Amino acid sequence: MALANITTISGRAVPVRGDDLDTDRIIPARYMKCVTFDGLGAFMFYDVRFDEQGHPKPHPLNEARFKGATIIISGNNFGCGSSREHAPQAIYRYGIRAVIAEGFAEIFFGNSTTLGLPCVSVSRADRETLQQMVETDADTAISVDLEQKTVTAGGKVFPCDIRESARQGLISGHWDPIAELLESGGQVDTVAARVGYMAARPANN
Amino acid sequence: MGKTLFEKVWDAHTVKVLPNGQTQLLIGTHLIHEVTSPQAFAMLRELGLRVKFPQRTFATVDHIVPTDVLCEPFADPLADAMMKELRKNCAEFGVTFFDRDTGKQGIVHVVGPEQGITQPGTTIACGDSHTSTHGAFGAIAFGIGTTQVRDLLATQTMALGKLKVRRIEVNGKLRPGVYAKDVILHIIRTLGVNGGTGYAYEYAGDVFDHFTMEERMTVCNMSIEGGARVGYVNPDERTFAFLKGRPYAPADRDWDAAVARWQSFASDRDAQYDDIVTISGADIEPTVTWGITPGQGVFISEHIPTVETSPESERALVKEALEHMKFKGGAPIKGQKINVAFLGSCTNGRLSDFQEAAKYLPGRRVAPGVKAIAVPGSQIVAAQCEKLGLDQIFTAAGFEWRAAGCSMCLAMNPDKLIGDQLCASSSNRNFKGRQGSVTGRTLLMSPVMVAAAAVTGEVSDAREVFAA
Questions:
Q1: pLDDT at B1
Q2: What is the CATH class of B5-160?
Q3: What ipTM, to 2 d.p.?
């Protein structure tokens, strides 16, 4: 499967402040009543953006100056909680192409990588600086460079981190592993036979 | 040098190392449900692929099923479409489906162990973060996203980075009235909601040695709330006794060989760990969350923290939590008036959870104005409870006795909070909006503490309420 090499993500960024922003917050469960991921982008951070009557709340995601931002800057443990891939799907379908945060929850990070949505970590101090920069000037040009492992904002360069396997997958266009997994069909059968419980029929059933 | 159970299971299931350094891991058992599988089946069709091991793929329906009105079609057309889609996919791809008419339907993490599908030394995955529950049996069980559900359907493998292993020993004895739920809430409070990121948690020590399988499941279930994608307990005689005679457990001549194999996976005495944490069981008290993350918990005797006395790095979150919960920093958690009591979920929806709560209910009534629901985790749990007359005890006390499902844990079915109701809940997440109302408020606690809150109408110390 030919996938794009994802090396640099450039654009404007929107700050989404807070630590431990969970996947229920990113996509409320009521919007998961669906059999496709289509249209999920409209519901990203829905209850953060809108009140119960559907009126916009004061939040950067509702500000005209952040419209068209393709990068989210958030706090620690971003994407914790439910394993729902609906969360990174909603983020991606909203138009976001990278998330910069202090840290990411394990399952969210993996789900995002597989969609080609890079998640890079920066220090708490740099996260604060980056959020302040875009809050001051929403037009600040941000660039995430996965090869150099840097975030550049308004001419300043910040180091960022990303798990090496994810970085390799993204920059080499192998972020969706299905093709490689399918290649080892024979080896899978061998291991399946070796573990000894895969063929077992339910004896009492 | 010895190995941990995690390493042994990982090695036994490794197919190969992928170019990016991740491991292609064989997943012996794939559990699916209606929420995270339909898109995966659609991707499978798009790729023109079949399910590689349909006999190792098991389905149930849990998140969206109503627990009061049981007829189909469901009133909610979206839920009904998900129900039908799962049925269609299972039929088309030859997947075993514990459907609603089988008497075996229930929350996926209750059904797997109940059927004996969950076994030691195996790998398990499910598109649900609470899959770590199955680690109670010495399995390595991962919560995954939908693209990985596709990978598993197509190849029975997925790409993963190896986790580090932290051993968490809880030693000594728990005090009376302290439950498995308190242990895991205390662990999360101590190590943080992201303390387990990158780790598998191995739970050990006297407390776990003496825990029943259901208690081990409660702890492993909430590993992910501490950031750990995997949590497990080494298999022992209790594990084997639980599995013996279950529908999918090995039987007859196969049993002894299976037990020997299962035993071989337990962590070696000289296994090396990336980290070891020791906790004294006697120090743990009944724990209740006061905030909007599962790590924001206090002992029942403690007060809700204030912004000023919290560490600088937590202040913004404490402030946000206090505002959402409408709590005053420094106030006692005890005595907060509740509106709803929810007993159920994959954390605490098993027979022993209802048995323990029901012990204290005869002769007591749910407080006026409190809505209390008891929701068995599976049709089998429901039948077990009903056989023992527990349903009668709950209804006599003023609880609604419901049918099996995820219910009020996550707001994908009609069981939801309304407005800013405060809910004493035996579930696993207190995130903003988790129980279906944006302003709804959740307090996580053990089933017996939920029962105590239900009958008093406020957060209470069950040890006092149910004394004598």
A1: 85
A2: alpha beta
A3: 0.96
